[in-house]
Design goal:
about 375 residues; alpha/beta; Nucleotidyltransferase, domain 5; 2 domains; six-stranded mixed beta sheet; five-stranded mixed beta sheet; 9 helices; about 40% helix
Length: about 375
């Protein structure tokens, strides 16, 4: 299923700026972004930091397997990439000859999926004779906060700020000093928060992906109904494997006593699970904010769509004087607008990618 997110081209005066970078109006910079790190094929067009289109093709084939199947994902990317790019250019009302560069997700992610996007981006850029810009997927999630949709009331975080990046594959606290200077100061040593949501949802019999279902059911449950393990990890790092194991043992022991335990307590189980995961995320984030004396706090990644986590951000903001930044729902999951935005900043700095660069599955602590 292809989703569209389009914005009308704004009128620029002498200069147009986004997040401190400026370009002349008579020389607009138009970037095509391509995202294929996991199971969503996406293409977007950004001009001078303003999003003109953002097209996402989802892969529903994975639902029946309870998780993403890498081989199926890469095959679906091969089928989707050309129509998605075509639709993005059409929706943006941009001809391919108007493009100044092609930005693509180089990693981290599933190698088979990344290879599809990387290969297409290289061929497309070479055919057009324009630069190629490689983008770190995690850095792009952070810089999604700088995407403009052409609205007058948009807010952008100032530097330095902390960003909690929570998704199915990553749980990180990132110290963001500039558009190009980011450091992961805390991360999960095992499972990510999104993975904990999905795997616990699976053992309760909920469909994949489980996170949204847990969020929906938790709204009607009691978050204090069940006490789950909260791992004590030094520093700013996370661990969710112990929490996941304690949840599994809770279900195992209670089902022995009552085979209908999960069905009868589903909403309370979801609320307790969700509350525990969010408490773990927020406590470490607060520790980092206190230690570094930073009040600008941002949220990113797929788990940032969770309503309780968003509310926790508002609550912490009010209680501790944080200036919080939460992305629109369209920019929480994997999307090409954030790739194009990151590519735009790198283009302005002249950071281009040779055709010999290969995709990578993992990344370092410096983004």
């Amino acid at each position: 299923m292809i989703q569209k997110n389009n914005v009308q081209t704004p009128h620029f005066s002498k200069t147009s700026s986004c997040g401190g970078a400026s370009v002349a109006a008579d020389k607009p910079v138009t970037i095509l972004g391509i995202e294929s790190s996991c199971d969503d094929t996406s293409a977007a067009v950004i001009r001078n930091g303003v999003m003109l289109s953002n097209i996402v093709a989802n892969q529903n084939v994975h639902a029946k397997y309870g998780g993403v199947v890498p081989e199926l994902a890469s095959r679906a990317h091969q089928q989707n990439i050309i129509p998605v790019v075509h639709e993005a250019l059409k929706a943006a009302q941009v001809d391919k000859s108007d493009l100044d560069a092609v930005a693509f997700t180089r990693g981290p992610g599933l190698l088979g999926s990344l290879l599809v996007g990387t290969s297409f981006a290289k061929g497309f850029a070479q055919a057009l004779g324009i630069p190629l810009v490689d983008v770190n997927h995690l850095q792009a999630h952070v810089l999604a906060h700088f995407i403009s949709e052409g609205k007058p009331d948009e807010r952008k975080p100032g530097f330095p700020f902390l960003c909690l990046l929570a998704s199915g594959g990553n749980s990180q606290i990132i110290h963001v000093r500039s558009h190009s200077d980011m450091e992961v100061i805390g991360q999960t040593i095992d499972d990510a928060a999104g993975e904990a949501f999905d795997k616990c949802a699976k053992v309760m019999g909920l469909p994949y992906p489980g996170g949204p279902h847990v969020d929906r059911l938790a709204k009607e449950g009691n978050p204090a109904a069940f006490r789950l393990n909260k791992p004590q990890i030094a520093g700013y790092d996370y661990s969710f494997s112990g929490l996941k194991t304690s949840f599994l043992y809770l279900l195992r022991d209670r089902i022995k006593e009552n085979p209908d335990f999960v069905e009868e307590n589903l909403k309370d189980l979801c609320a307790s699970l969700q509350s525990t995961i969010i408490d773990v995320l927020m406590q470490k984030l607060k520790k980092a904010a206190d230690d570094l004396n930073i009040k600008q706090i941002a949220l990113a990644g797929g788990v940032s769509a969770n309503s309780a986590l968003r509310q926790a951000f508002h609550d912490y903001g009010e209680n501790y004087g944080w200036e919080i930044y939460i992305p629109p729902f369209a920019f929480t999951t994997d999307n090409a607008a954030m790739i194009a935005m990151t590519g735009y900043f790198k283009y302005l700095r002249g950071e281009f990618c040779p055709l010999t660069e290969a995709p990578f599955a993992r990344t370092s602590n410096v983004l």
